[in-house]
Structures are given as structure tokens and as C-alpha cells.
Structure prediction request, 135 residues.
Amino acid sequence: MKKEKAVETSSLHGYEVEYPLFNFSFMTNEKRYDLRRQENGAVDKILLQKIFHLSQLTMKNIKLLPREKGVENLSETQIKKALLPAVFVDSGRYAECASGYCVFRLGKSGRVFLKRRKELFYVIAVDTHFDLYKH
Prediction:
């Protein structure tokens, strides 16, 4: 007899999450900003280090960091290209997220664009060309 999957609700239900969570399931289809198609493999290591660093901090402490070390907010009108995959919008996740984008820096290697829903950050794009918004 085959076992049924019983995981339909979040295992975090009832717990207050104070540390950030990162989800890579909804990366943009734009080749230039899709981590799966990045030409610069060194970005992977820097991105992992940045996410590891941010994961050690509470959301409250992340908000207190200067934008060079933490996360900055940009309105959607500041972004030069449409990045969101239709599946992200159609699933209802977009409506649950804060307006605009969160961005964190990878030093001179790029910027990471995210949509935020409370403590959950959906990683949408990685800009290694510095051309998604005016710097």
C-alpha cells in the first residue's frame, strides 16, 4: 500500500519566525538575470555567503543594517524590466508580498532582487550587469 503525502500545511504553523527564509522557486525567466544561466560562477559562492550571513540575523537586526550590508527597498517603478514569472503572480504569492522589491548587494559582483512576504524572501533575479535600476 502506497503512503500518501500528508504535508499540505506549513510546518511553521503556530511558530513566530524571526529569522529570514529564502526561496529560489520563482526565479525570473529573463536569461540575463536567472541564476541558473549566469555566466559568472563566482557569484554563486558570494550569494551563498550573503544568504548565510543574513540568515544568522533576526529580521529586526537586518532592518537596522545599512543598505550596503543589509536589504534596501525599491519600488517596482524603479526596476527597468518585468521580472516576475507568471506562475508567481498567478499563484497568489505576489498579492501576499510587500509592495516593491527588496535588494541586497553582492559587493561588486551584483545585486539580488527579492519579493518579501513577512520573513520569507522569494529570490527573483540576480543582476550581475548592474542594469536593472539606476544606481
